[in-house]
## 1
Amino acid sequence: MESTLGLEIIEVVEQAAIASARWMGKGEKNTADHVAVEAMRERMNKIHMRGRIVIGEGERDDAPMLYIGEEVGICTQEDASQVCNPDELVEIDIAVDPCEGTNLVAYGQNGSMAVLAISEKGGLFAAPDFYMKKLAAPAVAKNHVDIRKSPTENLKILADCMDRTVEELVVVVMDRPRHKELIQEIRAAGARVRLISDGDVSAALSCAFSGTSVHALMGIGAAPEGVISAAAMRCLGGHFQGQLIYDPDVVKTGLIGESKEGNIDRLKSMGIEDPDKVYEAEELASGETVLFAACGITPGTLMEGVRFFHGGARTQSLVISSQSKTARFVDTVHMFDEPKYLQLR
Ligand code: VTB
């Protein structure tokens, strides 16, 4: 699956990030998202692959592009067997978030990125558009911290694993009313909290790299992005666990259905019998081969944002592969069509 795909998906996230970055700071989150979706889809459809969106912009009815079930790539065409080689005809599943952190882009804040994960068919958990309680931590704490334990207990374990005090830990939490008690508990335990307004994929990813001053992600974010985070963490050996949140009373955003019972039924119809199951990274991204790619839209902990100059732009991306066991930071200068002059930077 991998060979050239690993290189092509860099361009997919780069194009989405560049398109979205043009709307940075304009206060229009829907446009920042829409142009990213369009650019990602356009570049994806030029790849020799047979892809299917398993996590995308929503159900077909409310998302015209990159909707769940949409087929993408040249090898989904009818004459595919003539234009594609047998390797390229193998079906692959794709999870996308062309603009993770739309508010961050709209308000010119740090931490947004274009992101996707790929695996062979069935290799990514097709999460419903519910919420997910998440716990991310560095590889050294994997299988030691556990989302079933209290935040206080986990912070003690994390501090032990990292050979430091709890006071020396920084935990990222999304700034939401639902996290009031969690934030209180983390602070009472002695750790420091970095509140973010959006963008928990970037936060999860940061846990896997030392030097980022992010040691854990705790709290409730969106479930689909949880799968994308898990894909990266699975490749990097980092800790990631997720538990679906199906009770609308827990999040109070009005975004996950009318009732807890209705949501449990919906999960059952998707084949999820135990709604409280704790998913490990390896279950959310269970494929033999997993690829992950992200490109910074606005500056982040791991990557720069898109920087425009006359005649072009510069981007920074991260591509992670379970097969080649690499995490590759890619710094790209993009030259646009017919500038008056070209001043690379
Ligand atoms: C967003 C977004 C996150 O979760 O907040 C969303 O910024 C859901 O939370 O990065 P709200 O509905 O409370 O905003 C993420 O998309 C990803 O988990």
## 2
Amino acid sequence: MARIVMKFGGTSTADNDCLRICAGHIAREVKAGHQVAVVVSAPAGMTNELGARMAKLDPDHQHKDESDLVLSSGEQINAGLLVMVLRQMGYKARSWTGWQAGLITDDNHGQARLKTAASQQFCDDLDRGNIAVLTGFQGVTIAGKITTLGRGGSDVSAVALAAAIAADRCDIYTDVDGVFTADPSIVPEARLIPRLSASEMLEMASNGAKVLHSRAVELALAENLDLRVTSTFKEGPGTEISEGLEDHLVSGIAYSRDQSRVSLTGLKRGIGAAQKIFAELAVAGINSDLLALGPASDLTMFNLVFATSRQDHGPVVECLRQRQLADLYKTMDAKENMARISVVGLGLRSQYGMADRFFSSLASAGIIIDAVATSELRISALITNEQVENAVRALHFAFALDRNSK
Ligand code: ASP
Ligand code: MG
């Protein structure tokens, strides 16, 4: 007997028919003799609708605490409905909200972090043979206020719960077949990745692959927990995410269209200009990722390009216009609608020629790179939004991801 956490996303729980399909998957695991804890999202679109409705009432988002109560209600609806379906099928099941199950968080409403993720009572209920259906996305502060974990956060609930109840497996049921080598809507030859290490999945997720929340992967990695991403609607192996799989070089291409670019020219050398700028950005809570630094035509000066998230576009411009920073450069140009494209794979750290392949394939596709960043497992470039499709296709081909052996 294993203990399993099964998480169902919004499209998997969109209506009663979908809930019956989810219940079928749950019944299969229960019949196989497993203990099952389920985590549900809200029905597709509901969280957005609730958010839009609140935005009209409270445009400045002044009531973050009450907003969390509203936002997390879709998950509650699904938990109750799914339990009804399971009971009608003859199973013992009950719903758990975040606060009932003991999912304690900090009080950062809208982006709360979990501190604990399941009470003894919750585990006892599983031991008694009940199916436990938990509302994803939701927690509670020590003071008893309901919190949410950030958009897409029920993945985080599922992994945290799995770790807390020492589950053997956490299966994420979704509307795609698993994790692909690239977005199949851009690259028709993209393949399902059967096995992926958690550190690669983390790079994929934090660089734009939407299939899993990056914090959920981070947690799975820290807790050494195996995940499986699989389709609710189609039979198939899905993608297994587990550490210690080193049998491939490059796993996939990820992209994210929410970048903004800042170019500064005419920075004086030797006065710590870059350091001062990044120190101020850090104080303002602005993260920059991709970066390029080069000499200006006047060799006593240099130019700097970096990327921030689109959300930070306004704040970054404002920050750089401050007196003490505006004196450090000659011109500033800031552009939204930029994208980050990344190649992810374990082989990037040990194989020669990977950077060459990355740059030459983008160059031959006529793609202009404004800045780059690399990590052990990833090479990323800042490009314009219009170039994303071409770049994804060029890299997918250059790294032979359309072929079976990597
Ligand atoms: N319902 C929440 C959202 O749409 C949480 C989730 O689906 O994971 O963001
Ligand atoms: Mg999701």
